[in-house]
């Protein structure tokens, strides 16, 4: 019976050891671990903002405008008397929604176009890649500004504008990964056996092309949240009275000398969240990069 048990363990252990190796690489890097903790806190704050906020973030109380931090208002109040701490919590919800929505557009549309361009060569590939080249000819932030100005403010329009801005990166990376996977023997054998194109893409090419794209998704979340704050700071993002970190920084800019917390609090929150996504992305990159396999898993960083 002992040999059978050894065989069963050997069949299961590679998957477990690979997963444990990835977790070990990520969690042994202190900065990556700190980034994951920040992301978790950010998501929990966004989800539970209505229960964590001590005040209605949209309730104006002009007699108590521009109050300094106190036990009543932890981060003071803005020009309209709204509680800054409550608006900061709801701003996390706005940033998370915009980040997930815009990156979701990049993932769904961009990666689908990349798969089509890689798998179906010829006219389809040429048309898609020329379209992507045209998008990449314009800097992402500039294209987001143009689209936001055309579509107008509001969270839906901001999501669309930023989604288009990150679309090209996902398309090109997916195409390059899919072209590599497409040359593997199991793909060539499956096509020779008559496996349908859809089944080949969904079951084989997409899963084996996705790991590097997971790193891009993590990084893009931080980029999109920063871009949304930039648009809101310029008055082209989340429309008033919506709570957004960029517009909060802009509103508090006039009071930097008298009440700096109005700008510093949302600015610090934005910095920490972007730092968290960047560090988590670095950890994922090191864990998934085959060139680093066996070097970081034991020693960490």
Quick take:
It contains 12 helices and no strands. It is mostly helical and about 300 residues long. Helix 1 packs antiparallel against helix 11.
How does this model look, in words?
The chain is an all-alpha fold and 301 residues long. The chain has a single domain, classed as MetI-like fold (Orthogonal Bundle), CATH 1.10.3720.10. The protein is 74% helix and 0% strand. It has twelve helices and no strands. It has helices spanning 2-28, 30-47, 49-52, 84-119, 123-136, 140-151, 155-182, 185-192, 197-233, 245-252, 261-288, 296-299. α2 crosses α4. The model is unreliable at 1-13 and 294-301 (pLDDT under 50).
Q: Give me the secondary-structure category.
A: mainly alpha
The total number of structural domains is 1
Number of DSSP helical runs: 12
- At the fourth level of CATH, the homologous superfamily is MetI-like
CATH overall fold name: MetI-like fold
Taking the alpha carbons of the first and last residues, their distance comes to 42 Å
Mean pLDDT: 81
CATH-scheme architecture: Orthogonal Bundle
């Amino acid at each position: 019976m002992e040999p059978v048990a050894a065989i069963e363990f050997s069949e299961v252990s590679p998957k477990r050891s690979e997963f444990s190796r990835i977790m070990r690489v990520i969690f042994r890097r202190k900065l990556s671990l700190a980034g994951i903790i920040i992301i978790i806190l950010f998501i929990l704050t966004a989800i539970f903002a209505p229960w964590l906020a001590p005040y209605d973030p949209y309730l104006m109380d002009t007699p108590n405008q521009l109050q300094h931090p106190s036990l009543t208002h932890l981060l003071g109040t803005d020009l309209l008397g709204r509680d800054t701490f409550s608006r900061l919590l709801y701003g996390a919800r706005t940033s998370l929604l915009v980040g997930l929505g815009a990156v979701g557009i990049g993932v769904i549309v961009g990666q689908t176009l990349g798969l089509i361009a890689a798998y179906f060569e010829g006219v389809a590939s040429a048309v898609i890649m020329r379209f992507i080249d045209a998008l990449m000819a314009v800097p992402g932030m500039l294209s987001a500004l143009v689209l936001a100005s055309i579509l107008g403010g509001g969270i839906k329009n901001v999501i669309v504008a930023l989604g288009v801005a990150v679309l090209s990166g996902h398309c090109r990376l997916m195409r390059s990964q899919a072209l590599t996977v497409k040359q593997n023997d199991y793909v060539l054998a499956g096509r020779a056996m008559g496996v349908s194109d859809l089944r080949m893409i969904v079951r084989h090419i997409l899963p084996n092309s996705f790991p590097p794209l997971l790193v891009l998704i993590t990084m893009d979340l931080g980029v999109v949240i920063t871009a949304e704050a930039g648009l809101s700071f310029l008055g082209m993002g989340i429309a008033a009275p919506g709570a957004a970190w960029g517009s909060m920084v802009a509103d508090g800019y006039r009071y930097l000398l008298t009440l700096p917390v109005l700008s510093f609090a949302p600015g610090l929150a934005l910095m920490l969240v972007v730092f968290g996504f960047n560090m988590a992305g670095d950890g994922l990159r090191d864990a998934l990069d085959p060139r680093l396999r066996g070097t970081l898993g034991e020693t960490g960083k």
